[in-house]
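Researcher: Good morning. I'm working through a list of sequences from a screen, and I'd like to move beyond sequence-only analysis. For each chain I'm collecting a predicted structure so we can compare shapes side by side. This is the next one on the list. No need for commentary yet; just the structure.
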Amino acid sequence: MLWAQGLPASENPSDFFEERIRPLLAQSCFTCHTDSPQSGLRLDSRESILKGGQSGPAILAGDPEASLLIQAVRRTHPRLKMPPGNPLTPDQVRHLETWVRTGAFWPKAPDQAAKAKTENGHPYHITPEQRSFWSFRPIRMPAPPETANGQWPRSGIDRFILAKLESKGMRPVKPAGRRVLIRRASLDLVGLPPTPEEVESFVRDRSPLAFAKVVDRLLASPHYGERWGRYWLDLARYADDRLNDTRDDPYPNAYRYRDWVVGVLNEDLPYDVFAKAQIAGDLLHPEEPGRFAGGLGLYGLSPRLPDDRVDVTTRTFLGLTVACAKCHDHKYDPIPTRDFYSLQGVFQSTESHEFPLAPEAVVSEYQEQAKRIGNLETDLKEFLKRETLQLGDILASQTARYLGAARQVLGDSQLPVADAARQAGLDAETLQRWIKHLETWPKEHPYLNDWPERLQASGEDFRKWAETFQVRVISVARERKELDRRNRSAPKGKPPEVMEADKAGFWNAFYFATPRPDLPYRPPLGIYYYGEVNQYPGTEMKVVPFLKGERREYVDGVLEEIRTLKESLPAKYAFLHAIRDSKKPTDLKVHIGGSKDKLGEPAPRRFLQILSEGEPPPFQKGSGRLELAEAIADPGNPLTARVMANRIWLHHFGRGIVGTASNFGRLGDRPTHPLLLDYLASRLISSGWSLKSLHREIMLSASYALSSAPSGRNAGLDPDNRLYWRADRRRLDAEALRDSLLFVSGKLDRALGGPPLWLTENLAWRKGPDGEPDKYSQPAEWILSDSNRRTLYGFVSRRRPDKTMTLFDFPNPTAISETRFETSTPLQRLFFLNSAFLTRLSKALVDRLDSGAADPARIRRIYRILFARNPNREELRLGVTFLRDNEKSWPQYARVLLSSNEFLYVK
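Model: Good morning. Structure tokens for this chain:
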């Protein structure tokens, strides 16, 4: 009874849970509320949810108003606001409310006894029931169904859509107008609106092939690769810099992978080859290794996080979350831990590689000279390191003299540091370090706490105290050296010996330094340390002035040789950020519980068991990358074509046939039209894996050409339009928005390819409180100068994201992004109100209009440019009235139109 009251007639409890609730909980809740439950609350079973945690039961079945879970996701609870960060969407909240109201149905867990666990040391057995799951079944070309309405369908796609609608007592809405349709197609395929001339040409062309000609023209455009290449880069987590917390760390050649993706999509490289090129492009044609090596940027530019390569490979190409099997057998899908380490072994048997794009002679000449420079720099570094250690001992033997000089500076004499150093025959910088140390409180050691009293002591007493203090400094240095020696020779596994805390703090004050590159601050240097420290570039050279005689001559000679070689070193040749097989590929062992210190059975490098017939054979060729690529791109693989066909459908319709585009497992959504998905996957394979052919078939369907008109009856039966009875209105994503603004104003530079450019004003020259510029760099807004290239060519930073791009939901380049989330915030509207970028573009747009024409004619022109239509009578009247008394109002008028929903959304 509860289900009948709360669910649409088209839903049943199991489907509703599997398609709406389980994926939502998995995505938003399971991270914190499963194996290590925060606040004692688990959300991975009905029993756990009813039991609740420290705050009580999470839900009261049948009563969403009284359920803590609902209050938390609504954010109406005084304390609980869940999930942390971004709130759930209104639709997601509504689904949870419906689920609780209708009894919180949760299907019984599958019989786990049917398979033996890898962790127990037994073979992992995949049951026939698991193999029968929809996404693991072989792809079969289904026959399009018969429909009652035989006039509406134009293709097999339409018959699948219409049959589902008719089975629910629904019918599609009217077709979109021609002006709406060409704008939709243009933004879909090339990410730019059509020109007024293109629109009028299509409107006048009444031939049956008019729209087909539009689609063919757009598919042939070089801008097609730019638009659809960006979607792929979202999956590839493309960025122009490395993941580095402490400093900007750009890749010099990242853009070559981006341009490769754009180029091969424009060429319509078969998708199976496209996939293989990114996994093993250097191995596809051994006689011509550079032919597809550009695709290796998928891994060569990776953020280098643990398990990243297994995760991106399986989620992107297969729609499977194999990385979830790192610590234990996958809890929902038939993927044992051993399978994860089989794939991890493939990538563990590779190494980062700069794939050269220059003749071998050029590469060899550069590398030989660079190696000579590197060897000299290494030799010099080791020499200076030894000298630094000796200098520390020498300076320590002068401690009493430095204390005396410090007394001259800080005591009654108040001598300048330089004068005190000169009179005592000491190094001025070292004395300055002493002064700073003596003026800084508190300290890590207690041995100078009496310094203020020592300043007042008599000369003889001070001298004796200073000499005693010098003995302490030398003694603690000797003790530390002996401690380090014993730790180096200690048996493996023995805990290292450490100094007592006061002595360790004392040693730090005089000798401490760290070469660690990961510290986000400048560590304090020991008073007597003049060696290498990453946060203090060039400090290792400060030991040079202390050198005399042959030592100084040696250093000067090496420095001169390095300088000469660097001046004659040519610019580095072009190369690709790639990977290559290691010289000795090796299998991994299963890490029990994910721990590298607790190893289990070997995991030979091979493909996934669930996608293999019988036991998958071990990979034999090098790392196994080529065999992995061939297994993924095999037309018999049930996932690869389904996943890609679904991704293409998603970007044309705003939602995939499978809503979770990178998860076709049990926690993912079920397909709304499983036969249609198999039809599209079959068509993709039979076309020779041509993505453009699939685009064309989808876009020439009657389903694609539907309008976004409402239908009360349909909305009551399918409020989310999951059955595609109309077109969904979609907001332009960040790239299409910026590109369209530049395009309609006549400012877009449509050149293809090349190094990235900053799209925003770079404020890195502004220094923060600690003098470090790049930590406080905040991009301002999109600028209009030399950066009028398409947004695809903007610098994508993992460390310093473009604030304006993220304002309009640009994804995090460290993670796989299968789709764009669409938020609407006040800050977005404020951008259109206050942005200097919009101010300049509004003026540029007005400049495109005929300045000698009357206002009505100019208004019609601007409407055709922006909206692909003429204004209606009321819009024309309002525009004329607004502009009548003030010619300077035109930029304001243009800005309002650029900010309108009609421009920002695709109907």
